[in-house]
Amino acid sequence: MLTHDQERLIAATAPVVAEHLDAITQRFYPLMFDRYPEVKALFNPAHQANAAQPRALAGAVLAYVQLRGEPARARAALATAISKHVSLGIAPEQYPIVGECLMAAIGEVLGEALTPEIAGAWGALYEELAGLLIELESHHYHAFASLPGGWQGTRTFRLAERREESEVITSFLLEPVDGGPVADFQPGQYIGVKLSLDGETHYRHYSLSAYPNGQSYRLSIKREPGGRVSEHFHARMAPGDTLELLPPAGDLTLVPGAAPVMLLSGGVGQTPMLPLARQALEQGRRVIYVHAARDAAHHAFGEELAALDRAFPQLLDTTLLYEEGEGGNHRGRLDRALLERLLPAGEVHCYFVGPQGFMSAVNAQLEALGVPAERRHFEHFGPARPLDVAA
């Protein structure tokens, strides 16, 4: 627990640290990778290159500093970081590495302004934050391991089947090598993947795109230009190949109740929406499903949506937007006028996933249409960042 003097120093220096936090986090990652190269595999290089990861770390630290006096709100603010950590299998012994390198980065950026007393206060704050994260992550690990078909750490899965869903998206059906059952997950969640490519370990997380069935998991992955892992899946992953999976995680899950659900996706953002749609429909809730794709060739899961429509004709309303070419219900992008027409009256929970620009536009439009923040639900495929930041 922080002493009174440490609390006072944190409060006094928080504005200075906040002012330099971007510089601190930008320095932190290279420093950590240099001192501890074994942790580099845990971080997607694309998110380092575009500074998304440093911004996410800075945001999490600031949120905790601001909310630590309100434990419930602080825990809620850390939910995204906790889910990402669970999907990577982050262990308690990795936290001292982060603490050491973060304090070293603060020292390099602030220089002589970082007195021993201030350094001690911020070091104690980090220890407090790390302890909370370790506690909450441990709860996730143990809760999942206790489920039928659950596990802790990694579990080896074999590719049973692959299916081309569109020009850029392929689905991979994975079954456990040990032949045992597979724990259910909450629709909308993602799962961590660990695999070795040419002797190098890589971690990624992908949405679970099919409804839980107790036997397998399905990942539907977009082929990203220059993406080493997605390229491996698309070009080299064949039935019989194996990889390791970590526990499912993520908070883009259905809010209980009977209110209608609006699911809005762009591109590969459709992957968590499919199990969410089925869950809501099976609960007897109305679902307004809106998906935007470049054109028909880039539109995935058309047959799957048609099957849901046949099974729940009174509950499911589907709208497809194509930016180019023929087909779909509408041409162009999702604008406020169309969203206003599709948005049901009264209470509705809206979920949206897609490229950064798509999510920023949808969030702003929904806010303008009077949908309160507590009924706007979204999740980033990569590190979280504000939706008003341009893609």
CATH class of the largest domain: Mainly Alpha
Secondary-structure element series: HHHHHHHHEEEEEHEEHEHEEHEHE
Oligomer: single chain
Query: CATH superfamily of the largest domain, please?
Result: Globins
In the CATH hierarchy, the architecture of the largest domain is Orthogonal Bundle
Give the strand line-up of the largest sheet: 4-3-6-1-2-5
Number of strands: 12
What fold name goes in the CATH topology slot of the largest domain? Globin-like
Description:
With 391 residues, the protein is an alpha/beta fold. The chain folds into 3 domains: 142 residues, Globins (Globin-like); 95 residues, Translation factors (Elongation Factor Tu (Ef-tu), domain 3, Beta Barrel), CATH 2.40.30; 118 residues, 3-Layer(aba) Sandwich (Rossmann fold), CATH 3.40.50. Helix content is 42%, strand content 20%. It has 13 helices and 12 strands. The protein has a 6-stranded antiparallel beta sheet with strand order 4-3-6-1-2-5, sandwiched between helices. Strands 10-9-8-7-11-12 form a 6-stranded parallel beta sheet, sandwiched between helices. Strand 3 and strand 4 form a beta hairpin. Helix 1 packs across helix 8, helix 2 crosses helix 4 and helix 2 packs across helix 7. The two termini are 40 Å apart. One of its GO terms (molecular function) is heme binding. One of its GO terms (biological process) is response to toxic substance. It catalyses: 2 nitric oxide + NADH + 2 O2 = 2 nitrate + NAD(+) + H(+); 2 nitric oxide + NADPH + 2 O2 = 2 nitrate + NADP(+) + H(+).
